Amino acid sequence: xxxxxxxxxxxxxxxxxxxxxxxxxxxxxxxxxxxxxxxxxxxxxxxxxxxxxxxxxxxxxxxxxxxxxxxxxxxxxxxxxxxxxxxxxxxxxxxxxxxxxxxxxxx
Length: 107
Known about the structure:
The protein is an alpha+beta fold. It has helices at 6-18, 66-72; strands at 3-4, 25-33, 37-45, 53-57, 60-64, 76-82, 85-91, 97-98, 104-106. The strands form 2 sheets. The protein has a 6-stranded mixed β-sheet with strand order 4-5-2-3-9-8. A 3-stranded mixed β-sheet has the order 1-6-7.
């Protein structure tokens, strides 16, 4: 389904603790938005729905809904800190075009 690097897992777990979301899952998806057509979305969720795909990375449950799965299959989610910015970075082999900020894409 998707890959999440150990750095990203550690950062997500840290954010869960800070926000009082222990025990929740990370929901990753896409929505229509951004300058390229689709935008990545992430949020904490305590429920799964029919068709949701669930993976576990070092104890972190990650949920992707059926509609988003076609766009996210094979992606890598990483966390980076550097001179050019700090944050989550998506590497999506399905994207045919991405915007300059890296937050939206098209297929």
